[in-house]
Write a structure and sequence with these properties.
This protein has helices spanning about 5, 90-115, 140-155, 165-170, 230-250, 255-290, 310-315, 345-355, 380-394; strands at about 1-5, 15-25, 30, 35, 50, 55-60, 65-70, 80-85, 115-120, 125-130, 160-165, 185-190, 190-195, 210-220, 220-230, 295-300, 320-330, 330-340, 360-365, 370-375. With about 400 residues, the chain is α+β, with helices and mostly antiparallel strands. The protein has three domains: about 1-85, Elongation Factor Tu (Ef-tu), domain 3 (Beta Barrel); about 95-250, Threonyl-tRNA Synthetase, Chain A, domain 2 (2-Layer Sandwich), CATH 3.30.980; about 275-394, Diaminopimelate Epimerase, Chain A, domain 1. Strand 19 (about 360-365) and strand 20 form a beta hairpin. Helix 2 packs across helix 3 (about 140-155). The radius of gyration is 34 Å and the shape is elongated. The N and C termini lie far apart (about 90 Å). The mean pLDDT is about 95.
């Protein structure tokens, strides 16, 4: 198979002859005498487009390195057919840009900071570079992005060399060579050299712009996220809109946003703590109001109530047998407290006849027990409550 994508990465349509057809219930796989379709390899997605009137959904690499076109099972193509092969150019060009950007970023990470690349992914939404570091300071990422965009402005040429494995090893590349035999070297002039079988744009200026979306630690390595070209511009516009909205919300300059956010979070934390105290006081008041002279308290709460507030309220009582139920999404949360003279009741013997009333499960440690019932039927919950009163009052 003649691989024209290596001779001219900008070829977008050719005429070719079908040399092999393989059909299954899932797909029709086609080989041709020559191709401009790059097969998925090295993190770069396979090309898609059209072969004659049929859609090429993907391009995969055969064991011998040839491109295999993946078409719909219904494609009526036969060996010997002469057809036009047309790239989905927007898809192809997008990944030529991303792949070139990845080489430039990985090269700059290595030459400027001694940071190696252990894995990459060229995705529809973003490019990821997984580094060999467990931590990278934010200032390094900023320097990297500034340097990458400067290389874009300088419009460095991207060229290719075919050489022996021995000669390629002598270049001292930043990454070991993974193939045997002759090696294809991709060189971004004065920026990076690496062994790579992928396809890229002709000059760094075509990348347009590189923008860092963020980073995270995964498997002990820092993974960097980038967008390139039009996607980078779209990301910048989206992020700028968020910043403008925050400017208006807090009535502040951009450099004041983080301090305003910190102040707001501190206020929210304080308000949450105050609300928690108020809810615990309210729960204590409710328990006092609902506890009879016999020391038994049975009450139902509104959906969403925090039963831990009632568990805290129990601490204020010397003698109490309390049941609190709370419906939640077709289920019922329950909490039982047995304190003082009621602690002589064996919860394990109590739980068997009681929880069966509403298919409840749960447990705990004296004096508080809790769980969930797979039931929110009001009549069954009332039966559950009545049985509790009977059992603890006996």
């Amino acid at each position: 198979m003649e691989k024209l994508y290596y001779q001219d990465t900008y070829l977008s349509r050719i005429t070719c002859t079908v040399t092999d057809v393989s059909r299954s219930d899932k797909a029709t796989e086609i080989r041709t005498d020559r191709t401009i379709f790059y097969p998925e390899s090295g993190g770069q997605p396979g090309d898609r487009g059209k072969l004659g009137q049929y859609n090429v959904l993907d391009t995969r690499k055969a064991d011998d390195g040839d491109s295999v076109l993946i078409l719909e099972p219904e494609a009526r193509i036969n060996k010997g057919d002469v057809l036009e092969l047309v790239l989905d150019w927007d898809h192809r060009y997008k990944f030529m840009v991303i792949h070139a950007a990845q080489h430039m970023l990985s090269g700059l990470l290595f030459t400027m900071f001694g940071i190696g690349t252990v894995a990459v992914h060229q995705g529809d939404e973003y490019l990821t570079i997984e580094t060999d570091r467990s931590a990278i300071d934010g200032s390094i990422i900023d320097e990297l992005v500034l340097a990458a965009n400067e290389r874009i402005r300088e419009n460095h040429e991207i060229i290719y060399h075919e050489m022996s494995h021995k000669d390629a090893e002598a270049l001292g590349l930043r990454r070991s060579i993974k193939v045997e035999g002759d090696v294809r070297i991709v060189e971004i002039k004065d920026v990076d050299r690496i062994a790579c079988g992928g396809i890229h744009v002709a000059r760094t200026g075509e990348i347009g712009i590189i923008y860092c979306l963020g980073h995270e630690q995964i498997r002990g390595h820092v993974r960097l996220y980038f967008s390139c070209g039009r996607q980078a511009i779209e990301s910048l516009i989206a992020d700028s809109k968020v910043i403008r909205d925050l400017n208006r919300t807090f009535s502040c300059r951009t450099d004041e946003i983080m301090s305003k956010v910190a102040e707001t979070l501190a206020s929210l934390s304080e308000a949450k703590a105050e609300a928690g105290v108020a809810m615990r006081r309210l729960a204590l008041t409710e328990v006092r109001d609902m506890t009879g002279a016999d020391g038994i308290c049975i009450m139902g709460c509104a959906p969403g109530a925090d039963l831990q507030n009632y568990a805290q309220a129990v601490l204020e009582f010397d003698d109490i047998a309390m049941l609190v139920t709370c419906p939640e999404g077709g289920r019922t949360k329950w909490l039982i407290a047995l304190k003082g003279r009621f602690e002589k009741i064996d919860f394990n013997s109590l739980i068997r006849p009681l929880l069966a009333e509403i298919n409840a499960k749960g447990g705990g440690r004296s004096p508080v027990f809790q769980g969930v019932a797979a039931c929110d039927d009001k009549e069954r919950i009332k039966g559950f409550s009545d049985k509790f009163r009977t059992l603890v009052g006996a």
